[in-house]
Amino acid sequence: MNINKVIDTLKTKYPGKKIVLNSKENLTEILCEVDPTPLHPEKSTAISVIDMTEPHYHNNSTETYEVVKGNLTLLVDGKPQLLSVGHSATIYPGQIHSATGDETWVKVTSKLGWTKKDHILVEEKSL
Fold first, then answer.
1. Could you list the residue range(s) of the whole structural domain that residue 109 is in?
2. Does 123 score more than 80 pLDDT?
3. Which Pfam families does its entry note (predicted)?
């Protein structure tokens, strides 16, 4: 992933919005909080630039992934879905999901709004 280019593009498209890197050592996702949860707990919107996300689930929120640039392989409860620009998929509470792309831009809408507490990572051995 071209980290600096992605961050510069996000800053240009979404000035003043918080940008979050999933890891400093092994960066695989950059997230821009376009319409964050603290503004209204019932929903949130982010742009996620994905090479890979870790398997996880949410107890409370329903997420919709809509690809805005590139292609995404979304794995939901072990079933792969290939999404391209304009395609979307909905992920319901309790569904284990992960995604793989190549600097793929995804609009992620979450109802209830996304919280760190409701982002539960799944260990590989338990998949």
1. 3-126
2. no
3. Cupin_2
